[in-house]
Specification:
Blueprint lengths: L2 E3 L2 H13 L6 H23 L12 E6 L4 E6 L6 H8 L7 H7 L4 H11 L10 E9 L6 E6 L4 E7 L5 E8 L9 H12 L6 E10 L5 E9 L16 H12 L7 E7 L5 E7 L16 E5 L2 E4 L14 E6 L8 H6 L1 H21 L3 H21 L4 H7 L2 E3 L2 E5 L1 H6 L7 E6 L3 H5 L5 H5 L4 E4 L4 H5 L4 E2 L2 E5 L14 H18 L5 E4 L8 E4 L7 H9 L12 E4 L4 H6 L6 H17 L7 H15 L1
Parallel strand pairs: 2-8, 12-14, 17-18, 17-20, 21-23
Antiparallel strand pairs: 1-6, 2-3, 3-7, 4-5, 4-7, 5-6, 8-9, 10-11, 11-14, 12-13, 15-16, 15-18, 19-20, 22-23
The chain binds adenosine-5'-diphosphate (ADP).
The site of adenosine-5'-diphosphate has 18 residues, from α2 and α3.
């Protein structure tokens, strides 16, 4: 019998699963049933679409039997089955690349870990929590040979030729001391009802029952009971379903242990006939920001499973949505290529996006709940603003930002409702630190005039917000831009003239460190600040582009130094010649303006020696 060695990551994974999922070991049954259900789904699809499988007598079912005495539990299905190479590929390696990341995540509390198991689909291996040895007997549909895969879950596996009456797979677990409790009718029944009630194929339990015959003697009877409901949950009428039913179905669908944040069930009839059931998980799926994230929506046609691997079913920014789309209006043998450009499907997708966004709008009426949602998925909504032009207005209303006037967050709508009369724009400031943004000299004048400024401290905020010119009738303006002071008092020309020689002198000294030096109308307590010219990217944005490797595409644009004509330092400078003290002060004004924006100085030691010399003179 040839012996195959597990790939390293499988051995690692087995070890980790066995040790970290210990308190949840019953989930092994859910995982095996879900694999059987997938194999039945796949075969169902083939029998309808592929001539080769037309003659198969498809009577889908999952059967569970056990023997307490022999310490055996068997889960069988008559699904697609596996041949020898499928077994090597599927049961000896970890199929999905994302699974590698799972190994790193498998730490911390075991409840969280068992959620991850479902997300990564490493389910099969969980049976080694309860079994010392596992045999997988399988025959692939349309093939005559059967194979038996055997493993102790430690080192490797062997595959031998075998026999099986019909296509499908039987997984035979030789239970260990931890697993023996599962060779029990009530345990199995409980676990199936708990996790697999909505699997769409019947799950039967084989057991023996002792009754009395007419003479009062014990009579042992073999019995088979169906344990689950086995119907397409989403097709049930909405009025017959309770909140708890939706939660239960979500758990079977996703293997998530936690309840979803929201469910959205739509049964559309008319020009288009379709049902959708979407969920928003309460915790963001871990692979959300990986390029090989797993698609969250499954496609069914007339209740036949078509695919769970089509990322086009949802726009990428809604990749956290879980659920199903089932339509009567597509042929069963839709190919992947057809799916991509199919009119029916794009219409359903379009309606679904609108529906999800409108439900999120409703959710936003409850501030507390919505803030939980936004903490988890706000970044994706921002992505949406950037990507989805068609739904931009709806998405803009879903954004939330911190502000100088609020401890929580505000929407654009709340912002404009609270605007003072005559205010012309919506103001915002971008950066990477909430604290330094809130104390930035750039917003001093806005604070004093009680004008609200949105605080945008997420890395992607600047890119997203610069793609939004307006919210309804209001322009959006960054306060770190030269002309952002529409609602502030203008500096009058006589003052400007008076300070012209000074600004020129400072510019002369700072040379190519600045694009310009000018008098500010936004500073109250600080002597200086830096802003960018109207169409120039901020320094933070430039730094981000550099980090992303776009160094060459980004011209090196300089900031503008604004000085506060009402500040004592500035009025004293106005009377000075170009002495060393004056020059040092120019540099200190510029460097402190950079520092307060959280930016790095190009030469910190120069800054420190100037600061020390100023201190020395003042002591
Ligand atoms: P996942 O189901 O998430 O892919 P598993 O480790 O549970 O991960 O299963 C690995 C693979 O083994 C499955 O993708 C499938 O190809 C195959 N497999 C497991 N159980 C069965 C089964 N009952 N019938 C057919 N194939 C199966």
């Amino acid at each position: 019998m040839p012996k195959h060695v597990f790939k390293t990551e499988v051995s690692q994974l087995l070890h980790l699963i066995i040790h970290s999922l210990y308190s949840n070991k019953e989930i092994f049954l859910r995982e095996l049933i879900s694999n059987s259900s997938d194999a039945l789904d796949k075969l169902k699809f083939l029998t309808i679409t592929d001539k080769k499988f037309k003659d198969i007598d498809f009577n889908p079912r999952i059967d569970i039997s056990f023997s307490e005495q022999d310490k055996i539990l068997t889960i069988s299905d008559n699904g697609l089955g596996m041949n020898k190479s499928d077994m090597v590929d599927n049961l000896g390696t970890i199929a999905r690349s994302g699974t590698k990341g799972f190994l790193d995540k498998l730490t911390g509390d075991s409840k969280k870990d068992s959620n991850l198991i479902g997300q990564f689909g490493v389910g099969f291996y969980s049976c080694f929590m309860v079994a010392d040895n596992v045999e997988v007997l399988s025959r692939k549909a349309g093939e005559s040979k059967a194979y038996n895969w055997k493993s102790d879950g430690k080192t490797g596996f062997s595959i031998s030729n075998s026999d099986r009456d019909c296509n499908g797979t039987s997984i035979k677990l030789h239970l260990n001391d931890e697993g023996i409790e599962f060779a029990n009718r009530w345990q199995i029944d409980n676990i199936v009802k708990k996790y697999s009630n909505h699997v769409s194929f019947p799950i039967f339990l084989h057991y023996t029952d002792t009754t009395k015959d007419e003479n009062g003697d014990d009579k042992i009877e073999s019995k088979i009971d169906q344990m689950n409901e086995a119907s397409a949950f989403w097709k049930k009428s909405k009025s017959s379903l309770k909140e708890q039913d939706y939660i239960d179905f979500y758990k079977t669908l996703t293997n998530d242990f936690e309840e979803p944040m929201l469910n959205i069930h739509t049964q559309a009839e008319g020009t288009l006939d379709y049902t959708t059931l979407f969920y928003i998980p309460s915790k963001a799926p871990f692979d959300l920001f990986q390029s090989d994230y797993k698609a969250g929506v499954k496609l069914y046609v007339k209740r036949v499973f078509i695919t769970d691997d089509d990322k086009e079913l949802m726009p990428t920014y809604l990749r956290f949505v879980r659920g199903i789309i089932d339509t009567e209006d597509l042929p069963l043998n839709v190919s992947r290529e057809i799916l991509q450009q199919n009119q029916v499907l794009s219409k359903i997708k379009k309606n679904s996006v609108k529906k999800i966004l409108s439900e999120l709008k409703t959710l936003s009426d409850d501030k507390d709940k919505y803030s939980i949602f936004f903490n988890e998925y706000g970044r994706l909504i921002k992505e949406g603003v950037y990507q989805d032009f068609e739904n931009r207005d709806e998405l803009l209303d879903l954004l939330r930002y911190k502000s100088n006037k609020s401890d929580g967050t505000v929407s654009f709508n709340e912002y404009v409702e609270n605007m003072s009369k005559g205010q012309k724009c919506i103001y915002y400031i971008c950066g990477n630190n909430e604290f330094s943004l809130k104390s930035s000299p750039l917003i001093e004048a806005y604070n004093k005039k009680e004008i609200e400024v949105l605080i945008l401290d997420d890395e992607i905020d600047e890119i997203v917000i610069s793609s939004i010119p307006k919210y309804k009738d209001w322009d959006l303006k960054a306060v770190n831009k030269l002309d952002a002071g529409d609602d502030l008092d203008d500096v009058d020309d006589s003052k400007k003239d008076k300070f012209d020689p000074l600004t020129n002198k400072i510019k002369d000294i700072l040379k190519d460190k600045v694009k310009d030096v000018c008098i500010s109308n936004r500073l109250m307590d600080s002597p200086s600040c830096i802003v960018m010219d109207q169409n120039d990217p901020s320094i933070q944005m430039q730094e981000m582009m550099k980090r992303m490797g776009n160094m060459n595409s980004m011209p090196d644009v300089k900031p503008i130094l604004e000085i506060n004509p009402n500040h004592k330092i500035i009025s004293k400078m106005n009377k000075m010649g170009k002495t060393k003290k004056f020059k040092d002060t120019c540099h200190l004004l510029f460097d402190q303006a950079l520092l307060i924006e959280g930016l790095d100085l190009s030469n910190p030691s120069d800054f420190i020696s100037r600061l020390n010399s100023a201190l020395e003179k003042s002591l």
